[in-house]
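ok new one. same drill as before - structure tokens go in, u give me an amino acid for every spot. 281 of them this time. try not to just spam alanines like last time pls lmao
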């Protein structure tokens, strides 16, 4: 298949590319800089210069692509104090631009990366894809993005990813740095759940969806076992011999998600069923 990735140079994109190439797909990437173009060309990726926010630049890349994968994002480093404007624009304007372009060309399948955080706080309930969404203001644009995709006429699939960790995500490095300096703090509701996904499993899900997703499907892409912050942070600290994390005063939203649907429909199973096999010290 001819497959276009928008966001090919990102954490997930870089893991997706070799998997698609290995499986014999012709991979295209929309890129913004010359250096990225040179790097991707070395990997046998066809590069197209463009920007998801500039609709005119999309047609050459989308034209003739049977599958389009939207992985672009611009999440600020500081989630609380950073500027979310560009991320909101990518999710709203960028998604609209890409959907319009894909609808006008021969695209058969459109894959939209999204986030399980849209579910909000579900306490001890493990949620599947039918649960209602309660996005916080920061991620409202991801809700709008999904809505645009759902309302489009092309054959779409939405992948709601869990919290990424694994090579090149920086997640475990950040956790360990905090643990070493005794700043890794367990939320007051220490039993609150978080649903993780190893980035290799996330990229395997993107490939499976590109090849086989049913039209109009939504999948949680998470590992097999939601974990409590208490268990995860204590494990991380013990793994590197750091002090036991303290419990702070602030509660965290609790979100544990099920991956039953993607297993049943796409035959996807995580290589890393939980952080216990995925978090290598
Ligand atoms: N991190 C998590 O825990 C998590 C969890 C669930 C879902 N997700 C979602 O997974 C997806 C991929 O995340 P990621 O971690 O791979 O992101 P990332 O590493 O930040 O990569 C973002 C990609 O988007 C591209 N991009 C940014 N602005 C663009 C624009 N205007 N036009 C075209 N491309 C643009 C970037 O290109 P440049 O190299 O040019 O900047 C880069 O390739 C996102 O939708 C994210 O929201 C993330």
């Amino acid at each position: 298949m001819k497959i276009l990735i928008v966001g090919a140079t990102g954490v997930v994109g870089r893991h997706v590319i070799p998997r698609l190439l290995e499986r014999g797909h012709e991979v295209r990437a929309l890129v913004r800089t010359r250096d990225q173009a040179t790097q991707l060309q070395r990997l046998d990726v066809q590069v197209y210069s463009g920007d998801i926010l500039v609709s005119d630049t999309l047609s050459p890349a989308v034209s003739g692509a049977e599958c389009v994968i939207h992985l672009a994002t611009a999440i600020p480093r500081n989630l609380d104090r950073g500027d979310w404007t560009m991320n909101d624009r990518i999710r709203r304007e960028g998604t609209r631009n890409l959907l319009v372009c894909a609808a006008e060309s021969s695209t058969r399948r459109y894959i939209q990366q999204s986030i399980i955080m849209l579910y909000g706080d579900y306490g001890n309930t493990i949620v599947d894809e039918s649960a209602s969404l309660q996005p916080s203001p920061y991620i409202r644009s991801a809700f709008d993005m999904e809505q645009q995709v759902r309302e489009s006429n092309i054959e779409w699939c939405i992948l709601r990813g869990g919290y990424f960790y694994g090579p090149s995500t920086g997640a475990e490095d950040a956790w360990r740095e905090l643990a070493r300096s005794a700043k890794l703090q367990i939320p007051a509701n220490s039993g609150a759940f978080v649903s993780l996904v190893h980035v290799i499993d996330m990229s395997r899900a993107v490939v499976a969806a590109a090849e086989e997703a049913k039209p109009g499907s939504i999948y949680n892409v998470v590992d097999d076992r939601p974990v409590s912050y208490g268990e995860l942070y204590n494990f991380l600290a013990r793994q590197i011999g750091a002090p036991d994390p303290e419990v702070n005063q602030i509660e965290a939203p609790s979100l544990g998600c099920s991956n039953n649907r993607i297993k049943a429909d796409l035959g996807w199973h995580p290589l890393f069923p939980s952080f216990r096999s995925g978090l290598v010290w």
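Residues 85-104 form the longest helix (20 residues). and btw The domain at 2-166+198-223+258-270 is CATH 3.40.50.720 (Rossmann fold).
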